[in-house]
Amino acid sequence: AEDNLANQHLAVVQLQHLGYRVVTVSTGMRAVEELARRYQDYGLVLMDVQMPEMDGFEATRLIRRGEEISGGHIPIVAMTANVLHDDRQACLDAGMDDFIGKPVLLDDLQKVIARCFQHHEAGVEVRSVALEPTSQDSLLDERILDDLRSLNQSDKPDFLMQLIELYFDDSKSLMQNISAAANPDDPDRLRKAVHSLKGISSNLGAARLSKMCWQVENAIRNNLPLADDWLDALEHEYAITCDALRQVSLHSKSETRGKLN
After folding, report:
1. How far is CA 239 from the centre of its chain?
2. What is the pLDDT of residues 54-72, one digit of tens each?
3. What is the DSSP letter of 261?
4. 72 is in which domain, residue-wise?
């Protein structure tokens, strides 16, 4: 990730000379997006510190935050013209593994890459991904529910109630697909099913269930093992989400009756 075209071109030539395949992006945000799409395709990130839209520090922090869920760890090397102790410490504090000063010399680049790979192979253990609802996510997002309620029309059936009933039908089928795909270990079918459940759950404000689906999908995409009890955890979260949505539907029904009376 480097925004200066001359520096970017130099890094590409140096890395190709060392035998590596190179993909370039010009902002920290694009680096985060590229890893989110194709994390398993990359072995190392060279991260410029000063870039537009999002600097290398923030990009690294976002990448590491995602890895807290996925269990992965990709080596990130800072490329910076500042080589003072405080600057180097800022790189490490952000979650970078190493740093290299500009101008980048081929021999220095080769050494820092070798150093990162040695540490990565020796010190990183692949962890299974456990599904746990986070404290930041509510069971149901009231903002989304209120937004859906605002679409109700007085002369038509309650829109939110209809949406919840459709969700029950669709999600039940998806949960059956997830359970079936989990047992014979069919990762592509499983990924598609949890992706669909994530989408319809998110649209209805089921924040925790949607987040757990994302955790499963991300683990499958990155070839990471899931904890043994992941399906039980997902089924439990689905059950309490459905119970909560039934209460929302009952409340909407009682409000509708009150208006008619």
Report:
1. 24
2. 888 899 999 988 887 777 8
3. -
4. 5-123
